[in-house]
Backbone:
């Protein structure tokens, strides 16, 4: 069994397999994602868990965060419109931030 999956041993989900999504992509943008999570959501490292499949939708519905507010905040902070990323995928957003700062990834 992979170290990223685990079988639940007790409780109502006993016998079910839990598998974590990969983080390879977001880890490539370590500084960007930490800065993003702090500037957009006011989270410091250790207060959140994100993967390559995480999206803006994972952070809506909490306190002050709705999708329009988050997208506006991204525009204000990064001068970047991400409203066309329908999935809200954070990895795609981090790529755009990187490309804006440093040019296209090779």
Residues:
């Amino acid at each position: 069994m992979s170290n990223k999956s685990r079988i639940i041993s007790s409780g109502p989900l006993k016998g079910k397999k839990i598998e974590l999504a990969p983080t390879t992509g977001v880890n490539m943008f370590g500084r960007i994602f930490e800065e993003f999570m702090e500037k957009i959501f006011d989270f410091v490292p250790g207060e959140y868990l994100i993967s390559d499949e995480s999206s803006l939708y994972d952070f809506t519905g909490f306190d002050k965060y709705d999708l329009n507010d988050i997208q506006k905040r991204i525009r204000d902070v990064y001068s970047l419109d991400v409203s066309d990323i329908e999935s809200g995928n954070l990895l795609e957003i981090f790529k755009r931030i990187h490309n804006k700062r440093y040019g296209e990834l090779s």
About this structure: The longest strand covers residues 5-7. The chain has a mean pLDDT of 88. The radius of gyration is 16 Å. The chain has one domain: 22-102.
